[in-house]
Design goal:
Chains A, B: One of its GO terms (biological process) is response to antibiotic. The structure is a homodimer. Chain A is mostly helical. Chain A has eleven helices and no strands. Chain A is flat, with a radius of gyration of 21 Å. Chains A and B meet through α7, α8, α9, α10 and α11 of A and α7, α8, α9, α10 and α11 of B. Chain A binds a DNA duplex through α3.
Chain lengths: 230, 230
DNA sequence: ACCTGAACACCGTTCAAGT
DNA sequence: ACCTGAACACCGTTCAAGT
């Protein structure tokens, strides 16, 4: 049980001194760098989705040749890994949350996690196939720590972390993918009414019609936490 | 909140009478059909993973021209949708499970669901982006029905179904993607020991080292059910 | 109703070469 | 140390045409 590909380093030697203000290149373009590539990749993914990220298009936006990217990055997979992890970076120091109430703490952490991914809907569908980057690992560490302080036994920690991770991942993916654009909503409603005969329970539960995603997420999380720490 | 693309029908008119034994074509190849295309697509996905499914390769294996596929199928997306749903078909009538114990019933249903997907590891990563086909909807209906009989109030049914769906989906995806092939295991162990300094809780929980996936799945599911139906 | 090949507009990546 | 263009071996899908 281990992270795949998480040690994929590029050929680039590890830089110690990172210039904060990269000087402009001769033609107004800042020089290529791992960071710049990832930033633009995220932009591209936000704008066009998973299918829109192309090494050629990426190079275009960066004002460089396609093959120049390969100096900084192993391959396209690598770009995906880096883009995903970058989305899960913490924007504010997580200590701000650390109140006394562990449960509220966990709920906040997972809510922030979900929100970060929903800001970049492609990230949810990508998560399953990607390695665990440092930001993801950092969030898992924080989660485990909070659970441990809440009194979850070491023997159960494993299960507790995975359960919550799985729940958040599943909920985020579901939310990101089943949200129908407004102009399709009418057609979708129609189709589902027709489904009622074959799937009466689904219809009764309003499973596909209710759109209080945040509420469903929060209530389900509460149920799970009830089970984990009675 | 509604299924995307779930009404995508091909240009083919709805067949009422499906011949059980399609006669051989003149060159030993049975004629092209939606069913045959999907079956071979699943074979291809099992053998080569998501990246291995190509319209050209698919046509090759079917002994037909590439463009012939497009008569039976809308496009590559459509093939993915159909392949995914076909994997979730019930092999035995689900009534066999219906004992009296609703909880055991739910656990069995979800275990079977997960097992079906793990037999085709590509299906887990695919699920997030696909529409709800009839087999998926059928399983959701069955699940909701069992929960309802177990005493979950109609007002909570929505949350209960989604929570379990999210949990199973997350757990299956995690399992399918973090299972390291044996020959990579040694290297992975090494890497993770090195990680212990920065992520002490993760190390202590053996989050990435324990490989009792089935146990973790079952125990987490129990916790969730405890919360859902105390 | 069903199948086809040629053509179009793309892909990711290797390689040998430039500065 | 960093960047490059040409070339290779692929893609999915449109189209006009065949039976």
């Amino acid at each position: 049980m281990a992270a795949k590909r998480s040690d994929a380093r590029s050929k680039q030697s590890q830089r110690i001194d990172e210039p904060l203000q990269p000087e402009q290149g001769p033609h107004g373009e800042p020089p290529l760098s791992r960071e710049r590539i990832v930033a633009i990749a995220v932009e591209l993914l936000d704008a066009e989705g998973t299918g829109g990220l192309t090494m050629r298009r990426l190079a275009d936006r960066l004002g460089s040749g396609v093959m120049s990217l390969y100096w900084h990055v192993d391959n396209k997979e690598d770009v995906f890994d880096l883009a995903l992890d970058s989305v899960l970076e913490y924007r504010e120091p997580p200590q701000a949350i650390a109140s006394g109430d562990w449960r509220e703490e966990v709920v906040q952490m997972l809510g922030d996690w979900r929100a970060g991914m929903l800001r970049h809907p492609w990230s949810a569908s990508l998560l399953p196939r990607r390695a665990l980057g440092p930001n993801i690992l950092g969030r898992l560490e924080l989660l485990g720590n909070a659970l441990s302080r809440a009194g979850v036994a070491d023997a159960d920690l494993n299960v507790a972390i995975w359960s919550l991770w799985n729940y958040v991942m599943g909920a985020t993916i579901t939310r990101a993918n089943f949200d129908v654009p407004d102009h399709e909503r009418a057609a979708a409603q129609q189709r589902l009414e027709h489904l009622g005969e074959r799937y009466p329970t689904i219809e009764r539960s309003r499973l596909l019609l209710d759109d209080d995603w945040d509420g469903v997420f929060r209530r389900g999380l509460d149920f799970l936490l009830d089970g984990l720490v009675p």
